[in-house]
Structures are given as structure tokens and as C-alpha cells.
Amino acid sequence: MTDTPILDVQGLETHFFTKDGVAKAIDGVNFTVRKGEIMGLVGESGSGKSVTGFSILGLVDPPGKVVGGKVLFKGEDLLQADDKRMQELRGARISMIFQDPMMTLNPVLRVDTQMIETIQAHEKVDKQTAWQRSRDALAQVGIPSPEERMRAYPHQFSGGMRQRVAIAIALLNKPDLIIADEPTTALDVTIQGQILYETQKLCRETGTAMIWVTHDLAVVAGLADSISVMYAGRVVEQGNINDVLDNPVHPYTLGLLGSVPGHNTRGQRLYQVPGMAPSLFKLPKGCAFQPRCGYATEACQQDQTVTEPVPGRAVRCCHPQVEVSS
Amino acid sequence: MSVFIIRRLMQAILVVWIMSLLVYVGVHIVGDPVDMLINPEADQAEIARVIRDLGLDRPLHEQYWYFLKNALQGDLGNSFIFNEPALKLVVQRIPATFELALAALGLAVVIGIPLGVYAGLKPDSKISQTIMASSILGFSLPTFWVGLMLIMFFSVMMGWLPSFGRGDTETIFGVEFSFLTWDGLTHLFLPALNLSLFKLSLVIRLARAGTREVVHQEYIKFARAKGLSQNRIIFVHLMKNIMIPVVTVLGLEFGGLIAFSVVTETVFSWPGMGKLIIDALHNLDRPLVVAYLMVIVVLFVFINLVVDVLYSILDPRVRLRDLKG
Known about the structure:
CATH topology of the domain at 7-93 and 179-188 and 208-263 and 274-325 in chain A: Rossmann fold
Distance between the termini of chain B: 10 Å
Oligomer: heterodimer
CATH class of the domain at 7-93 and 179-188 and 208-263 and 274-325 in chain A: Alpha Beta
CATH architecture of the domain at 7-93 and 179-188 and 208-263 and 274-325 in chain A: 3-Layer(aba) Sandwich
Number of helices of chain A: 12
Radius of gyration of chain A: 21 Å
Shape of chain A: globular
Shape of chain B: globular
Largest sheet of chain B: 2 strands, antiparallel
CATH topology of chain B: MetI-like fold
Number of strands of chain B: 2
CATH class of chain B: Mainly Alpha
Low-confidence stretches of chain B: none
Largest sheet of chain A: 8 strands, mixed
Order of helices and strands of chain A: EEEHEEHEHHHHHEHEHEEHHEEH
Helix content of chain A: 25-40%
Structural class of chain A: alpha/beta
CATH architecture of chain B: Orthogonal Bundle
CATH superfamily of the domain at 7-93 and 179-188 and 208-263 and 274-325 in chain A: P-loop containing nucleotide triphosphate hydrolases
Mean pLDDT of chain B: 82
Order of helices and strands of chain B: HHHHHHHEEHHHHHH
CATH superfamily of chain B: MetI-like
């Protein structure tokens, strides 16, 4: 854990300009990821967690647009970088794993083609070397008989195997950062477990930093070093993984953790956060969580500032629940 | 793969046989060729003799049986008018029609795919909207009228290109081709363009629709996230996916091109099969019509077979299904 972080996101804002108005999908997000660190980015659907990942890589499709902030990757602001520079970085220094392994591999190209092109897009190596490196990457992510599987088409793989191929592709160029956008959501729990275990191992071995986007707190609990909880385009609570999960301070984090079925007593009604996630077109005034929050007061009508109610914890709330959890 | 081809071949033979039945019966319903063939002043005995000579006095099923027996040996009967083997007459005209149809297909693909992909990638640009609007014209303007306009403009007004015939031809393996000489090429261009217009519009639409669909697929975004160049994404990742529907439709439409060439060949006096069939229909030359239709049927069936094979090469998922089947 040294000086400059791999990734330092400051005040990132991504808005979607639709005909119904401007949706502030991301509205001032800050976080840092250090070398070898795995950060869990957690939130409900529509909280802006996936868009954050795409914004970092400059892959937000219109009508979406990054309108503000800084994305410092090893000190270089990616939002100022031109297309050519971004193309150099993508897949080489920062790679991404997508949510649905059934959709991410091109159905009409063989796995070896899709792997070799990833290497050759960034390095001048001959096909033979690229092929060997690709095969080694497949072996590394636990694909049996990688030599034969190189010649296969994506539809000849199961979902879990396809995601392994996608992870192998992400690892090919030994990136400094991997953004994983809910990579295990579409998989069986057993496969999910294996993939989590192996990704964690690979990150530890290679020192690759990772942003793991998910809505599943259980996944993050076993995997990540730190956590950022997003709500309506903002990070509401941030800190060390164990601290946050053991002693959540923001009422939303509290609600999320309370919603995990295991935390409820058997036979009782399951807890859920009351209300619905707000529409990005009609965000409530002040704190976006305030209409669903049991602790809301007049003060919540104001814009919330980020405070540090507990050391090492960033919280965007005027009623941090420190006393409740301690 | 070979099991797949053999199965398709069996289906093809069945289709050809059924079509032969339909064609034969159909042509017999259309009209009586005897009236066209015989001198109006011929007497009853003469008429009876001609009918007997042509085998037209036998019941239809016997005629068909006779036809089928000979057809299996490659004899589709003699033309009533030319008194030559009908098949030979049709086959002689095939290269001209094929050359025209292939040239038209080539134009449709070479012009249509880039335009369609462009229109799909930049759907809101003025150029794309112009492309799409023109493709509607290509669909809706009648072929013969466009042909006449092309002649009017390029041949009559500008005098750039000739308006009829095949021009100088070069002979390879005993078959004459226009595209091998410059003069022949200038003769080929206008009719090929005329014939391709409809398919060109179709290719543009298919390529655009395919591009619009594929460009939003996750695997394209993943390809971008891998840091691939825009060219690689368009020409490999996108193109290979949109080619699947394009090849399917074009393959099927190739038969249509040959059928449509009747109009174009007539307008440009292109000496192909289309011109032959028009004359044969006019004269109720039964064997010639039957021979033409049989050749077309076999062509269609063959083209379908080729498309299936091509399709399985392009789309690995089809291959797998057939291996299992």
C-alpha cells in the first residue's frame, strides 16, 4: 500500500441527457483504489455502480456523458485523455469483466481469435507467442485442457467457463486495474464461489487492483478490502470492509445489511428498506435517501456533506448512527 | 458435415421431382401449342399427324412418364420451334444470364454493405438518411423503367455506355464472357446496375438493420473494453455477425435475380435465358418452357444448398446443431 493510488476518482459526474430530462446517474463520486486492493462497489439497481465502471473506461454510450470530475489513473486524468490514449489503456492497463458471460464473447469468433487479438492490439508480438500466452491465461483461470479449448467457439462453453474465458482475457495484458461489473451475478452459486476464490487469488498474486461492482453484500464480504456503498448516484458510505459491515453508520447501509435474510430471526417477517429507489429524474431534495429513512429530520432537506464520524470512514449523512452500532 | 450435405441433397431431389410434376402439368394447362405450330390451312389428317408426332395424343400421365424417363437421361425434349434439344438451348444461354446476375450481385454487395454499415453506425447523419431514402427508391421504382432511364441518360444523352448486347466476348472453356474485355465490361455495367438496384436496396437495409442490432451487443462493448481498434471492431467483430443474414437472404435472392433478369435482359437486349423464355412462352413452346423452368428449379435448389453450407461456415452454432442432428 504505497503513496499514489492506482485509481483516484474525484467528484465524478455522469449524466444521461434523455428527452425526459437529465438523469444524474453519477453525481459526485469519490473513491480511491490502491495497488492490490479489491474495492466492493455496492448498491441497488440504478444506483450508478455500473455506470461508474464504464465512466472510468470512457465507455459510456450516448445519451450518457461524463460531465465532471477527475479519474486519476496513476496520476493521469483519463477524462482528459484522447481516444487513442484510452484505446491504449483499455484492455492493457485497465480491463473490464462484464456481467453476462453469455453476451460478452463474440459468438462467431473462436476463443483463440478473441484472445490473441487482445494481446496484439497492445503489443507487437507474433501470433505464436500471443497464442501461448492466451493458452497459459486459460490454464490460469482453471479451464481444463486449455489447448483444445482455444479452438472452441463461445457457445461450446458453459456460462461459468465463459466467464472464466472473459476473466482470462481481462488478465492477458497484466493490467493494473480490473473493473468487474457483477461478473458472478448470472452464475450458479457454486461457480460463483470458485470464481470469487480464483479472482481473489489472482489479484493477490499479481498485485492487480480491482473494483468489484455488485449488489450482493455476501460476495463483497468475502472478497473485498474496502467498500463503497452507492445510492442514487452518490457514495453514501465508504470504508474498510469489516468496519463497514460490522458497524454500518449510514442508515441506508444499515437497511441494506438488515435486508440480508440471514440477519433476521427465523419465523419473523423479513426486513426490507421501505419505499423504492427514487427515479433519477425526480430526486428528492437534499439527501436522496431521506424519504425512505427512519431517522430523517428537517436537516435532511439540505444537501449533505461528507463527514468522518468514525476514523477512516466517509459518510454522507447528517444522522450517522454511530451510537447504535458501537 | 457430409451427413448434413447428403440429407440436404435428398431433400433437393424430392423438391426437383415435385416441381417437375407441377411444371409439366402447369404448362399443359396454359394452352394448346398445336394451334401455334400448324399452318392454318392444314387439313384434319395433317393436324392429327402432327399431334401424334409430338406425342400430344397420349394421356397426360403417359406423356409425363415419357418425359420423366427421358429427363433422367438428360433429354428434356426438342423445342417445337427450333427443333433442337430444349435443354441445350437453355444451357447455351445460361452463361450470359449468370454473368449478368453475378455482376449485379457483386455490385449489390460491394456497394450495399459499406453503405448499410455506415448508415447503421451513424443513423442520425444526413448522409445516412440520404442512403436510406435512396434505398426506398431502389425498392419501389420498377426495374424496366429504371433500365430505360439508365439507357436514356448514359447511352442516349451522355453517350458514355452502350445500351444493348454483350459487346466483345472472350471465350474460356468454350463459354463466352463479356467481363473479360473492356468493351464487354462497358456493355455489362448498365444492365448489371439495373438488375442490382433492388438487391442493392435490400443489402443496404439488411446491413443497416444488422449493424444497428449488433453494435449494441455486449460483445462489441467488450471488444472496445479490450482496447481493440475501431477498424478491427467494425471489420471483424461486427461484419462477421451481420454477414449471416446478408448471406442467407442474398443466396435466396440470387435465384430471384435470375428470374428478374427476364425484364432487364429484355430492356437491354441481353442474350440470356430471360429473353429465351419470353419468346418460348409467346410461342407456347412447351419443351423449351419446361426445360427453362426445370433449369431454374435445379438452380434454386442448388443455390439453397450452397447457402446452407456457407451459412454453417459463417455461423459455428449452426454447424454444431447439424453435427448433433
